[in-house]
């Protein structure tokens, strides 16, 4: 279960006014890899200096370590939303250099992982709670992560005005439809959506926006757009005709080895 909301202290009766903003303990950074159009997320509690990285990219490990150093943070976990096909993870390298744990979703074919995240499992970083939400369909081992009930890291399942493809890595369009409509679209409309990729310069959306404006799930050409049926969504996804990711032959086996295989090849 999610942590109960902390009660606010009653306002003082004295006529002393404080115009300062309330202190926020969460550090949240969205980082971008231009080659693969991948977003990596840094989440940390500035009071405890504990941090987690979600979907790190191998070529950006030095950047991520520099940011951790600049902010005086200790990396506890590298967390994957799924086994990626378009970039090689930086988890193995970061684990070697920091001693952090590398976590992947349950059912991922990654024997080198430090641990496996189960649906509805809660991870804590200081006072920050991260809830795992099973979102299979893009792949057969995919998780979204809801940070403190407000920031949803959707991986490749739900993108801004799009969604992840379902034609490889045991993808299933019907299962993706169920994951998005039954597990993500039921969250409050104000929930921020932060995807693992974007190809048009978008950085953030909300659940409310995606329910109204995402053309994969809503027929926005109609006068009164409605949610597509599961059958219509499956037909649409089955006929996208997308090319294979350029790095798929390298990335998938490397990511199943926590990124270390690609490192060995590079040397």
Task: Give the gist of this structure.
The protein contains seven helices and 14 strands. It has a single domain, classed as Ribonuclease Z/Hydroxyacylglutathione hydrolase-like (Metallo-beta-lactamase, Chain A), CATH 3.60.15.10. With 267 residues, it is of the alpha/beta class.
Please write out the topology.
Elements: E1 26-33, E2 38-45, E3 50-54, H1 61-70, E4 74-79, H2 91-98, E5 101-105, E6 115-117, E7 122-125, E8 128-134, E9 143-147, E10 151-155, E11 158-159, E12 162-163, H3 173-184, E13 192-195, E14 205-206, H4 207-213, H5 230-238, H6 248-256, H7 260-266
Parallel strand pairs: 3-4, 4-5, 5-6, 10-13
Antiparallel strand pairs: 1-2, 2-3, 7-8, 8-9, 9-10, 11-12, 13-14
Task: Outline the structure in words.
The protein has one domain: Ribonuclease Z/Hydroxyacylglutathione hydrolase-like (Metallo-beta-lactamase, Chain A), CATH 3.60.15.10. The chain contains 7 helices and 14 strands. The protein has helices at residues 61-70, 91-98, 173-184, 207-213, 230-238, 248-256, 260-266; strands at 26-33, 38-45, 50-54, 74-79, 101-105, 115-117, 122-125, 128-134, 143-147, 151-155, 158-159, 162-163, 192-195, 205-206. The relative contact order is 0.14.
Largest beta-sheet characterization: 6 strands, mixed
Indicate the mean pLDDT.
90
Give the N-terminus to C-terminus distance in angstroms. 45 Å
Specify the CATH architecture: 4-Layer Sandwich
Approximate shape: globular
CATH superfamily: Ribonuclease Z/Hydroxyacylglutathione hydrolase-like
CATH class descriptor name:
Alpha Beta
Count of the domains? 1
User: Looking across the biggest beta sheet, what order are the strands in?
Assistant: 1-2-3-4-5-6
Q: Which fold name is given in CATH as the topology? A: Metallo-beta-lactamase, Chain A
Helix content: 10-25%
